[in-house]
Design goal:
alpha/beta; Rossmann fold; five-stranded parallel β-sheet; two-stranded antiparallel sheet; 37% helix; 14% strand; disordered C terminus
């Protein structure tokens, strides 16, 4: 058994199961999302000194004035993205703001192909190494400013943002579906928005919306 991956004590699978039970109590219903959250060892994405808090419902520092989002936020964003597909199968997802790579790892359990962008080089390198160490093969990590999107790799079936939301919104305009961290904190109620071709292409200025 891989003790480091499965954890012991406060990072054990039993602790991870308690996190899943708490997510259910908080209203997460998508079984695919819950299974993905259980599968990914969050304690490996935080500093060892913080590992005992990895499965608490809190954000934790990952240096460079950045944090790993609390489990509920990660689960809810992915649940909203899946629910917003209106029956369309989501295969290719773009994540803006890789951070430590945790959310990308969870996305990789749910969707066949994930592209993720990080503008802080040490975090980009850390995330890339962690995903490689976990043998997660369906995530491509890009060192780039996510606010400009990734049109060269589009189109995408979904885009999920953990950062840069105001800049991305200005670039995309009003006709788009977005799943952003602050939206989840306010209740994730804008499921009536629609996709725009600009966003599916990786979003940018309206000149790409052709």
């Amino acid at each position: 058994m891989n003790t480091r991956r499965n954890g012991i004590g406060m990072t054990s699978q039993r602790t991870r199961l308690r996190m899943i039970e708490r997510l259910r109590e908080q209203g997460i219903k998508d079984e695919a999302v819950l299974a993905a959250m259980f599968e990914v060892p969050r304690h490996l994405f935080v500093d060892e000194a913080l590992a005992s808090r990895a499965y608490d419902d809190v954000s934790l520092p990952i240096n460079y004035n950045q944090t790993i989002s609390q489990p509920y936020i990660v689960a809810r964003m992915i649940e909203v993205l899946r629910a917003a597909s209106s029956g369309h199968q989501i295969k290719r997802v773009l994540e803006i703001g890789t951070g430590c790579g945790y959310q990308a790892a969870v996305l990789a359990q749910v969707f066949p192909e994930v592209h993720t962008m990080e503008r802080i080089q040490p975090l980009y390198e850390r995330a890339k190494k962690q995903l490689r160490d976990l043998k997660i093969r369906n995530v491509t990590v890009r060192y780039a400013d996510g606010s400009v999107g990734l049109p060269e790799a589009g189109p995408f079936d979904g885009i999920i943002m953990a950062c840069a939301a105001p800049r991305c919104r200005r670039r995309c305009g009003s006709s788009w579906r977005w799943v952003v961290e602050w939206l989840c904190r306010s209740g994730c109620r804008n499921s009536g928005c629609i996709w725009s071709s600009a966003m599916r292409r990786g979003f940018a200025n309206p000149g790409w919306n052709r």
